[in-house]
Backbone:
């Protein structure tokens, strides 16, 4: 008994029979599913047991196999391997701490910049309080020095107050002949301070307190207060 054509569903006789894709076709019915171009055994492409020409062959979408059991197994295996590597790295670094990067030049520069910004903000706040006259508990005949001391001690609980110490120092201290080199740039934040650049030599340096010095910048000839942590002895 002769089979039926898979396209027209009519009987296919042996002289016109094409056996392909597990089906039988008339030679004229073996054509592209899209453009109906007649195909042969050399130029057809099969997809889901249907013939297509090269131009209209369906493009496979690879996302359709993303959740196959094999891909899920590989995904789980990669995840477990990542966790194992993370734990090994954690065990190697456990107890070592992360202070190894605390003293890098970049972090030191950021820290110094933040300290400088804090000093500038402190001076701005101090000047605002000084100009605003926030000293309600003044003595009957206050002197300028007593007023400054009162303004500094009034805010002692929540801000450092190095300013009264610096003003109490008065004029430039006597020259001690010490020389320092600047290791960072510094811009004066107050009229009694001095600006300098990285590499400048500061001479006649005198220690005022733990955080401040007094000296003269050899390059510009200017003298005034400077932060002690911005220079190093030479």
Residues:
């Amino acid at each position: 008994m002769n089979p039926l054509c898979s396209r027209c569903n009519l009987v296919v006789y042996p002289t016109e029979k094409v056996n392909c894709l597990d089906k039988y076709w008339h030679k004229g019915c073996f054509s592209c599913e899209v453009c109906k171009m007649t195909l042969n055994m050399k130029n057809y492409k099969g997809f889901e047991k249907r013939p297509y020409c090269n131009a209209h062959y369906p493009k496979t979408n690879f996302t359709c196999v993303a959740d196959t059991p094999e891909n899920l197994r590989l995904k789980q295996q990669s995840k477990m391997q990542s966790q194992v590597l993370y734990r090994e790295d954690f065990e190697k670094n456990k107890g070592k701490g992360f202070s190894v990067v605390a003293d890098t030049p970049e972090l030191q520069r950021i820290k110094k910049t933040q300290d400088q910004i804090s000093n500038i903000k402190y001076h701005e706040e101090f000047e605002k309080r000084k100009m605003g006259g926030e000293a309600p508990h003044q003595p009957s005949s206050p002197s300028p020095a007593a007023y400054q001391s009162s303004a500094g001690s009034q805010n002692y609980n929540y801000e450092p107050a190095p300013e009264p110490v610096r003003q109490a120092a008065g004029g430039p201290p006597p020259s001690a002949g010490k020389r320092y080199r600047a290791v960072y740039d510094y811009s004066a934040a107050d009229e009694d301070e001095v600006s300098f650049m990285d590499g400048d030599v500061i001479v006649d340096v005198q220690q005022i307190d733990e955080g401040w010095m007094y000296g003269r910048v050899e390059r510009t000839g200017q003298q005034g207060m400077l932060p002690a942590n911005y220079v190093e002895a030479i």
Notes: Confidence is low (pLDDT under 50) at residues 135-139, 149-156, 164-175.
